[in-house]
Amino acid sequence: MKDWILLYANWPEGVLLLLQAGYKAHEYELYAALDFDCESSVCILIETGNVIVGYGELWAATRHPNSKIADLIIQALVDRRKRLQLLAEAHLSVDELSELKIRPDVLIDLQTQQVIQILRAKNIDLSGAIEPYPWSVYEALGHNYTIADRVWEAGFRDVDVPCVRGRTLLMTKRCETGLYFKYILEEAAWLLGKGAQPYRLCENTPALHFVGFA
């Protein structure tokens, strides 16, 4: 990719010209549009379907001063996860849905890669629903609880889904400094307020013990 292409991210009409000429947009152009604070380009790039909103894109958007851009990125992620969830509900058995803790009132989060693997094995078309790696939307939000509340309201309402290691979000915090431990406690309080189970066990250890020994 040529660096000059990124300059088009500040020119929505130019972005459209590139796309109409057959250029396949990627996350690089989305990051550039975020840097330029260009809502129109962000919207155009998302609508191509070729730009996957992942951890890095959500992280950048939620730290962006323009709340409208954050909303665009969050909605793009919601739309992608909804598509994957609809595919799961259409092609997975009741037992598979139950095992993966997929419910119609809650958007898929940490289960995404497991769902993708199962659907691939069933040869289901995953266009517009693929994500390259496992992650939780809450891992990308830092300590921005205003954004966390918006993500929660958007449908990501299960903060207690375990990863493949059996650990929930409450169990995966790491402390590097005394100040950071303050943030861990704030995040733990937010998670508990949203339904995280403090005494859920992993390796015979309650979730709150992971917080205490972060």
Account of the protein in words:
By secondary structure, the chain is mainly α. Among the domains are: 78-158, no CATH class; 165-213, no CATH class. It contains 11 helices and 2 strands. It has helices spanning 3-7, 12-20, 27-36, 39-47, 55-62, 67-91, 94-99, 112-121, 145-154, 178-193, 207-212, and strands spanning 201-202, 205-206. Helix 4 runs parallel beside helix 6. The protein is globular. This is DNA, SC020.
Task: Report a brief summary of the structure.
This is DNA, SC020. Helix content is 53%, strand content 2%. It is an all-alpha fold and 214 residues long.
Question: What labels describe this entry?
Answer:
globular, 11 helices, mainly alpha, two-stranded antiparallel sheet, 214 residues, 2% strand
- Which stretches are low in confidence, meaning pLDDT under 50 for 5 or more residues running? none
Overall shape:
globular
Roughly how many Å is the radius of gyration? 19 Å
Largest sheet: 2 strands, antiparallel
Helix fraction, binned, reads 40-55%
Structural class: mainly alpha
Strand content: under 5%
Number of strands: 2
Record the strand order, biggest sheet: 1-2
Provide the succession of SSEs.
HHHHHHHHHHEEH
**What is the count of helical runs?**
11
Termini separation comes to 41 Å
Average pLDDT works out at: 88
Protein name: DNA, SC020
Organism: Aspergillus oryzae (strain ATCC 42149 / RIB 40)
